[in-house]
Amino acid sequence: MVSSGLKSGLFMGFGAGLVVVGAVMVVYWPPLFMSQLQRMMVLSPTSMSFEIWRETPIPMYLECFMFNISNVDDILAGKNVSLQVTQMGPYVFRETHSKVNLSWNDNSTITYYNQRFWYYEPELSNGSLSDEITTINPIIATVAYTMRNERMIIKIPVDVFLRLYHSNMFLTANVSSWLFDGIDDPVLDIASQFPNLPMEIPYDKFGWFYERNGSVEFDGSFIMSTGAADFSQLGNIQKWRYSTRTPFRGECGEVKGSTGELWAPEMGQPEVYIFASDICTYMILAKDSDVTIEGIDGVQYAANDSVFDNGHRYPHTACYCDEVRDSSCLPPGALNVSVCRFGAPAFVSMPHFLHADPYYPSKIDGLDPKEEYKFRLSLEMFTGMPLSVAAQLQINLLVRHVSGISLNNQLPDPDTLVPMFWFRQEMQTTPEYAAMARYALRLRYWVPYALYALSVIGVALLIVGVTVLIRRLLKSPETTPILEESSSQENQ
């Protein structure tokens, strides 16, 4: 039978040990958790995040919505009508991403190229790739925009040349040709034979994604922080096409932000930066709302009216226009990306001109902007895990009347930003990856509670041990009180 003294010692020893371990671990658990999270997330050939980043395992889809101009006959008849468009689609493609040509650098960065493939998903689409779309001929609009400041003696022969091959400024082709297959145009074939033209002709066909499917070089090279030197910089792009600058001036031309696939833990900051190589700049998404996806709480960041503002409401965006603001600096809500699209009069906006100046939609019939068209990103704050992405942008062509090039001047309004198509690049975390995040969050939240419980148990054991000790002091081993035993010995 265990003596009361041994019981007391065991209870107090174990109790003190549990209290000390629990208290110490409660203090040190947060940094221990962050240290373990860093080991998992810092990009290295052996880290857990590497394979997920290199080959995106979560299903991604590209949805393309085309705008068909439905009143071409009225426009060509010279009627003073607004441009009428009808949205067609979506035409859905499954998208895969692979990081290739990897080079690990000594300054805790990695150089890579992003190779993307798209596979048409007819069962998810509304329509067929053979659907015919009629809209503005981008070749004519680009030639006119490029020649807008040339002398009349140059512009008139160009107009004659264009009319040799085109009777009007509209073009009809199927969806497949508009997107990936490309459209043949004799103007491109002939112009490519003259190397000294004032415009660059990069392709033999026109298509919004022509020669992009499976291309390694199209998106350009990226140099990204691995997070090893500074964990807060994990996933941030340091250089694009081996430069820290893009064609835009001032801070608008800085290369910064994440491409959206890899994030350091985001502790609730009011905004995040996404670098988008397609538009040669970054986007700032503001904190929008709290969300719950697959049982995981997160924060949604979304585009607001500061995106594509170009200095009208937000002074820091003025660098998206030339320093001397002229007629080329359009109202807010559309970003001029001609400098990174071979001089084409391409402008990017939110779908259906959401949050854009009323100047744009007032010229177009058939638009229906909705808040759900916002560019959105949802993150789990403590792991930086992307929960969902809805990257939504609209491509528009500026059709502005140019004296001397009459073929380009057939729209009733002399200054129209024509919506061509918009796309939604969508991804949402799967139950499998959500389970991984929940496991990490349980460790973060439940372990401290377990340590507190451990400390409480330790205190309880200490109390039991002290109680046993007091009882032992008050009683002899033969259950005779100690004071009574002492008095008996004195009488003898």
Automatic annotation (TrEMBL):
Pfam families: CD36. The keyword Plastid does not apply. One of its GO terms (molecular function) is scavenger receptor activity. Keywords: Cell membrane, Disulfide bond, Glycoprotein, Membrane, Receptor, Transmembrane, Transmembrane helix. It is found in: Cell membrane. It is a multi-pass membrane protein. It comes from the Eukaryota. One of its GO terms (cellular component) is cytoplasm. The chain crosses the membrane at residues 12-31, 446-470. Belongs to the CD36 family. This is Protein croquemort.
